[in-house]
Each structure stands twice: as structure tokens, then as C-alpha cells.
């Protein structure tokens, strides 16, 4: 499996993977799958912010993706990022998630970021909880019943992972 930067030719697969999670699952709190054009805008926004968007390619097919975004826009949050990881439902438990997330963590550390947040859709999302724990995240808290999808209330679980020296030292300017 190769982990590479997402490109235009990957957008159809990215859109399809995400659409499945939106329509069939609760990892995303979106209720309507975005069109390919919207996913292109999201990819461009990520790139414009100078942040990575990776895809996992196995046997010529995109099997998952991961991108980093600013945790919050205010200046004080400048050293904190948030990750998003989605894997093709037919390729779960094949190592794509950890490979993607590990690449994103390495990138963030190399670029001087200090904290990485995971906002996991629903407290029953055992796959994402295990993935993030395996990547060094710890549960910080659970926001109870903050979403409504598929006729039921959903939680979000916040997980956090220090990057590099974390909060042990003050960072140099990014």
C-alpha cells in the first residue's frame, strides 16, 4: 500500500468513500453526501492552508484518505490540528487507517505542530477509537447527544495526541 498526496484523479474515489460513510454510518455528522465538486473545494482548501491530504492506494485503487485541518481558526490554536480519516468499507482492518494517520502525524511533527485532535463521530465507533488509541491518542472527553442522525442521538468523542515535544516546551514560530 502506498500513502501519497491526494490529487485530482483521486477525487472520485474520495467522494465515493465519504458518501458511504455519510449515508450508511455515523462517523460523519453530515446527512447528505457532498458532490465531487464540493470535495474538490475541500481538497483545495486543505492545500491552500498548507496542510496535507493523503490517500492510501492499494492495487491501483484508493482505499482510504486522511487530511489535517486547523483545529480552530483563532491564532492561539495555531499549533493544534485536527485529523479526519475515512477508509473504504470493503478495505477495513487492512492497515490503511493506521498507515494514513501515521503519515499525517509524522508530517505534523515535522512541521512543528504540538497537538492533534480527533473528533470521533459517535462513541460506538470502535474502529476509529481503536485506530486513534493505536496512534497514541487518549480520550479527553465525550460530548453526549450532540448530533442527530438516522433517527438517534449521537455522541462525539474527543481524543488528543501530543506531537513532538507537546506542551513541554514553547514552540518556535511555524
From TrEMBL:
Alphabetized GO MF terms: acyltransferase activity, transferring groups other than amino-acyl groups
The keyword Transferase is assigned to this record: yes
Cited SUPFAM superfamilies: Acyl-CoA N-acyltransferases (Nat)
One Pfam family, short name: Acetyltransf_1
Positions of the N-acetyltransferase domain: 1-164
Cross-referenced InterPro entries: Acyl_CoA_acyltransferase (IPR016181), GNAT_dom (IPR000182)
Superkingdom of this protein's organism: Bacteria
Entry keyword set: Transferase
PANTHER family for this protein: ACYLTRANSFERASE FABY-RELATED, N-ACETYLTRANSFERASE
Protein name: Phosphinothricin acetyltransferase
UniProt lineage: Bacteria, Pseudomonadati, Pseudomonadota, Gammaproteobacteria, Enterobacterales
Amino acid at each position: 500500500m502506498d500513502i501519497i498526496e491526494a490529487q485530482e484523479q483521486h477525487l472520485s474515489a474520495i467522494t465515493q468513500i465519504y458518501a458511504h460513510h455519510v449515508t450508511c454510518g455515523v462517523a460523519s455528522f453530515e446527512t447528505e453526501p457532498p458532490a465531487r465538486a464540493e470535495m474538490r473545494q475541500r481538497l483545495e482548501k486543505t492545500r491552500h492552508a498548507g496542510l496535507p491530504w493523503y490517500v492510501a492506494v492499494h492495487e491501483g485503487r484508493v482505499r482510504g484518505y486522511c487530511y489535517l485541518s486547523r483545529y480552530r481558526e483563532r491564532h492561539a490554536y495555531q499549533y493544534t490540528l485536527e485529523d479526519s480519516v475515512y477508509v473504504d468499507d470493503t478495505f477495513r482492518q487492512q492497515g490503511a487507517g493506521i498507515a494514513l494517520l501515521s503519515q499525517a502525524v509524522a508530517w505534523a511533527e515535522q512541521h512543528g505542530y504540538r497537538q492533534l485532535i480527533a473528533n470521533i463521530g459517535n462513541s460506538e465507533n470502535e474502529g476509529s477509537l481503536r485506530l486513534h488509541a493505536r496512534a497514541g491518542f487518549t480520550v479527553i472527553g465525550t460530548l453526549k447527544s450532540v448530533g442527530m442522525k438516522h433517527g438517534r442521538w449521537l455522541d462525539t468523542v474527543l481524543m488528543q495526541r501530543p506531537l513532538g515535544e507537546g506542551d513541554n516546551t514553547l514552540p518556535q514560530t511555524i
